[in-house]
Amino acid sequence: MNTTWEEFYAKHPPPQDFGQSEALLTTFVERQLQKNNKVALITSGGTTIPLEHNTVRFVDNFSAGTRGSVSAEYFLENGYAVIFMYRVNSLEPFSRHFKGQKFLDMLEVNERDGNCTITVLPQYTENLKNILHKYKEVLNQDKLLQLTFTTLSEYLWLLRSACQALACLRNNAILYLAAAVSDFYIPSNELSVHKIPSCGPSTLSLQLVPKILAPLVSLWVPEAFVVSFKLETDETLLISKARNALNKYKHNVSNISSDTNNIIYEIIFLQLVIANMLQTRKQQVTIVSQENNYVISLTNEQLNKGEEIERSIVNVLVDKHRAFIQSTEKNN
């Protein structure tokens, strides 16, 4: 029997620092509301599935948070404030450019007369200056809030809280759900308390993660512009699965007009699904809407020049979000 989303939250306690995260979310959104800023909630990186309460082993996925961290920078460039919800130790906006040894390669040590200074090598100075300037500007404008998660449970608690905080922004909120969320989990009451003995093969019983998109688009933040992602390895299933998601997360509601005629409106809660293949995700995506499929791709030459497909994705979404705001305000 599959667990409902209500049962999941009832059985899995919130993270220890959840109260602090809720307070940060509430105050950040209130400040953006006062400034009439549009806000993008970006989820990024993968979720872990613990195998023990005192976790030593867990199930993970390959996501490094590239799409989310890159996209956050482009939303910020387009004037959005960003809530960046990311997996601990995955890529972050701005610092992603200097991950690991790359940063150390930019530096040199200068020792003279007993004094030591560290400087940036000339060939990297301009690039580092530009990125640092953008980062400081975003902070000065109070447009970036970063929150972390590791496990599936932490992610789902934080996601619900972020959506509920964003509800007051109505159509000025866009959700860009790029995190690689596990499809399976082990219920908390079935986890071993301590490390599973390594004396032989173990049998794990996995349950399906409840479909959180359903309450998200209909209850928590119903007026937001919602974009989800679909990653596949079988190209023949990619578009059909993306379109199935669109059709699943919508419903019909009745409204009585001023002339008492009964008018049926189709409310599309999930506006877009971005479909991408594992093997080509950095070079091509398909934006699937109710009306059509729109392919965005980069040539090999563009990739070699360092162009990022996320710039084009975000540009399209910014235009569609603007049109969404205009259409919903007109209907109201």
Automatic annotation (TrEMBL):
One Pfam family cited in the UniProt record for this chain: DFP
Domain of life: Eukaryota
All residue ranges annotated as the DNA/pantothenate metabolism flavoprotein C-terminal domain in the record: 168-250
UniProt xrefs under InterPro entries: CoaB-like_sf, DNA/pantothenate-metab_flavo_C
SUPFAM superfamilies: CoaB-like (SSF102645)
Family statement: Belongs to the PPC synthetase family.
PANTHER family hit by this protein: CORNICHON-RELATED
Name of the protein in its database record: DNA/pantothenate metabolism flavoprotein C-terminal domain-containing protein
